[in-house]
Amino acid sequence: MTEETFLVAQDVYLKAGVHIGTKHKTKYMSKFIYKTRPDGLSVLNLQEIDARIRVAASFLAHYSPEEILVVSRRENGWKAVKAFGKYTDIRVFAGRYPPGILTNPSLRNYTEAKIMLVTDAWPDKNAVSDAKAVGIPVIALCDTNNSANDIDLVVPCNNKGKKSLGLFFYILAKEYLRLRGAPEQEFNQEEFTPE
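Below the sequence we write its predicted structure tokens.
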């Protein structure tokens, strides 16, 4: 895959650190690892990251904004998911996800969704569990230390860094809107990344 076919320039991906994994790697995520650096950190394959972002955007584009729920327990993702929700009108849950909002209609914040995206399957395990209980697919951003239990689509990336999450949600917003045929909107990557 050449740089021209990436969703953003390769140096933009590299600058955001979207490819930097952890020192720990799970068996499932090893297929996405390009190499291990001398300091022990794993490096994810940029082509795989880009390809999976395309798949995630294409998958989400089959759903209207009100049918999608994005969850981020990880604080580094809050600004990114809020900006994503602002531009796409997709419902986002930034912060602690109370278990049962998809499964218990008697809760005041009960909601329905047809697909869920989580920034990290481990901190967002309550959301993943609810999605599994109601039978909706889950897309998860997974670092080298994640497992893929109950995940329907894994997007390999650095799911802990502010810049990485900001870039991911910026790209996803642009692709989702483009694939849905929405009018072009002006927004910039800085709106998705905390200072």
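The chain has a mean pLDDT of 92.
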